[in-house]
Amino acid sequence: MTAIQATLDHGNLLLDSPLPKFAGRVPALIVISDEGQSTHGLPAQKLGDHSFDAEEEFEAIGLRDFFGDPVDEKINWDKYFSIKK
Question: In the Cβ-directed half-sphere of 83, how many Cα atoms lie within 13 Å?
Fold first, then answer.
């Protein structure tokens, strides 16, 4: 694998250095840096010291309907995941 630095200028890829000589056709992967662009990550307020309760955690992983279910009530999750308090 070889990394090549370039600039994307209005849809045109401008190489900062010449390409190494490859024999034939090779696949390439282009990763575009989001530096200077607005990002779509988590809002800063979601990254605080807030601790979640079990219901919020189940909701976060898409299992909110399972929380409080009779099957859920019968499982000792701390023991299942070997959590030591």
Answer: 7
Tokens of 25: 């056709």
Tally the residues of the chain.
Answer: 85
Tens of pLDDT, residue by residue over 2-11, are: 888 888 888 8
> Are 67 and 54 a contacting pair, CB within 8 Å?
yes
Q: Where are the domains of the chain?
A: 50-80
Angle at 31 between CA 33 and CA 38, to 5 degrees: 30
pLDDT for 46:
59
Q: Which residue has the tokens 């988590």?
A: 42
Q: pLDDT of 39-72, one tens digit each?
A: 666 666 656 666 677 677 777 777 767 667 787 7
Q: How far apart, in whole angstroms, are the C-alpha atoms of residue 79 and residue 29?
A: 44
The two tokens of residue 18 are: 């010449």
